[in-house]
Predict the structure.
Amino acid sequence: MTETETMTTTWLKCPAVRPEATRRLVCFPHAGGSASFFHEWARQLPGYEIHAVCYPGRAARLDEPLHTDLHRLADEIAEALLTLPDDRPLAFLGHSMGAVVAYETALRLQAAGRPVAHLYASGARAPHLAHPDGDGPDGAGTADMDDEAIADALVALGGTDAELLSDPDFRELVLPYVCGDFRMFDAYEHRPGPLLTCPVTAIAGDADPQVGEAHAAAWAAVTEGVFDHRTVPGDHFYLIPRPPLAVLARGLGLPHEVR
């Protein structure tokens, strides 16, 4: 395996190689999340070739050190994505913290002359409003919280990682990277600079305790392109029971191609 292939397979997991797909979709997990969160999307979105980002410190990369700087994380993800063939449009979807990582990565690809075709920001405040006022996971204040408090706050939000944290057999394994992600995100600072040129769609659940309508609508400020804001039924992890597949399919102009 070449160095380029190693970099790609380290950072990206592709459940189904799909050369006939009209574009690629790169999915960025939430804080404490992993690439497997998006595994089923490959079957349900045949118009896309799905790639999920593999953050260090979990799953197959469990022995690697966690990142503490979100900007550096975006640098390395962008470097890996630039090794993909430039043979079709590349769209990004990030959930919660992953939306901000996707945004920062998109800025880097744009600066390298490979702008993304669309950014979908799911369950996230705009980068310049990234942090709530000290209310824990996917917000600010984690620097003053111990690991158990962060875990309890995540359990309250829900999601597959919360289920693992509720299991004593998994808690010791999962807790380090969950807390590491939250502390990294807590330390993130938005840097004013060039705007994205691609369309941006913000998606948020109508019962999300972390992301209000105004917080999601503020994503309009990060792009010169077309902006769309969708409110869907559900809480912070609305996309577990109801992935935004129809929204993504419409991005392809194929509203009936969701399985």
User: Anything to note?
Assistant: Residues 70 and 188 are 6 Å apart (CA to CA).
